[in-house]
């Protein structure tokens, strides 16, 4: 018996509100998830793309600072790439090329503000759509499957539901675990990128000119997080084997991606045949070949083609809605079907999740 | 902020079940169950499938009842399950853990889920683990602990928020004799020295006899017996057992002539109906007259196991 053992003593403090359990479940879930070496590596990896994007911000602002923006824009308008920032030079060149072809501005200063905002927006959108969305899918696949399935396997639901914790607090706690991870992978690097852009820009006034971009980044993260987190938790709640939930998660992403690629390719083939027929009839000139790094340009919303199959793949659906949030995409036909698909995923997943979590107390 | 145990509920009866009916499909698991759990230690015993676990779940408001109600310290468990669970600590029979947490983290987690503030939860977790004699094992992951240690952690997690009602489902399962004694001692301490109400659901009748003030015997979804062990083991007609050497048949005949019913059980034992205290001097007189040498005269008590088995058999007959 320990020397400090004082026997049983009562406790007369005051209890916190049941809603405090949400934070307790979230913090404990994060602590347990953080024990995974793979998660730590994945989170480290998730921040590495930000370095390359930060270099692009720097290259752009350096050009502005050195008065090379006009020459760069003219060069981009002629179809040339920008050197020194790797594959992101494509995004910059295409953006500057379009900015040059865009609306006329009254003054040089106005033109600079508009160009800067367009460049930053496209860089942030490309950052969130291309590397972060994919990394997020991987990280959620590592963390989410164990969150509920391990509770089912260890019968841990008794720990929660024999205490003043309801299904809502339990689900919110689990969602908060993934929400925090989503924030670390998408929101924080995006805001850090914006801050980096402000720091490397010639004036602090740039922060006021681009104040809406961090908010748009947060909104884009929410669009990414809500359906994906709910879907992952719904899978986790359906089985006591986290491996099965993990497999279902990755299989969903892969299968939907493949389906989207197949359907888009079929459309492209059909369009090429149509174009061939049109050329034979001398009706329209052929489209110019895409620049190198077409995929990142597409993530930045530079590919103006309508992706009518985006709703079939969560990745592409999220991208389309994010493009709308960043003000890049305005066509209802491009945004509404993906938004409806994401909403449907979120609603169905939330229903399954609530039904499964409440099952032990519903008998 | 919520008081740990509201003052107005502490004076009410810890548990009162009235006409509780619970059905799973067409099977009735609880059939008009009416019972009460007063302060002290109450044993809930019955064979597998008797409805004990369902009754415990209904106390926690975890099942939807077809009829009836369960009140815990005057709070309706079906209407205010959260308020009830604030007043109850539960040690489930099923091993339930959060893999990856150490023993002390597990108890702290339970405390936090029950609403204790952060630092206080950790302090309290160590305090109850000390009382449970958990030692340094508390720093090991729960999934690597021995059965006995896991039981200590589960018990500590149940009482960490100092609930006025503690419910334990098979608390001595898998414990060695020393640990079992220690666990029963802790339950007795909680009830006797700290005024807790303890409800122990178990199959182990010696445990019930050792610590319980009252017993509820369930079978086939009904309460078959309820009362103190002394009440339950007392025969329907009070009897005295006379152990003696000599002509017991003659003694029985003398008693019969005086209107006292006596039955010879074996060569040295006579069972005598004792409807009043006046019978005792008459027995001594009859023994003297018949020439038997009295070795002992004591009230007849049935074993609790015998009473329990009779109740189960009656339930089985009724079901048939």
Would you summarize the structure shown here?
The complex is a heterodimer of chains A (363) and B (320). With 363 residues, chain A is an all-alpha fold. Chain A has helices at 20-34, 37-65, 69-77, 88-101, 108-153, 157-161, 167-200, 205-209, 212-237, 242-280, 294-299, 314-325, 332-358, and one strand at 14-15.
Question: What does this 3D model show about the protein?
Answer:
The complex is a heterodimer of chains A (363) and B (320). Chain A has 13 helices and one strand. Chain A is 74% helix and 1% strand. In chain A, helix 2 packs parallel to helix 7 (167-200) and helix 7 (167-200) packs antiparallel against helix 9. With 363 residues, chain A is mainly α. Chain A has one domain (20-361). Chain B has 320 residues and is of the alpha/beta class. Chain B has two domains: 14-232, Rossmann fold (3-Layer(aba) Sandwich); 235-299, Alpha-Beta Plaits (2-Layer Sandwich), CATH 3.30.70. Chain B contains twelve helices and 15 strands. Chain B has helices at residues 7-10, 52-59, 81-87, 103-113, 118-131, 147-159, 177-194, 205-211, 229-233, 248-257, 279-290, 304-319; strands spanning 2-3, 15-24, 27-37, 40-45, 67-72, 75-76, 88-91, 165-169, 197-202, 214-219, 222-228, 239-245, 262-266, 269-273, 293-299. In chain B, the strands form three sheets. Chain B has a six-stranded mixed beta sheet with strand order 7-8-9-4-10-11, with helices on both faces. In chain B, strands 3-2-5-6 form a four-stranded antiparallel beta sheet, covered by helices on one side. In chain B, helix 4 (103-113) packs across helix 5 (118-131). Chain B is elongated. The chains are: A mainly alpha (363), B alpha/beta (320). At the A-B interface, strand 1, helix 1 and helix 6 of A face strand 1, helix 3, helix 4, helix 5 and helix 7 of B. Strand 1 (14-15) of chain A pairs antiparallel with strand 1 of chain B, so a sheet runs across the interface.
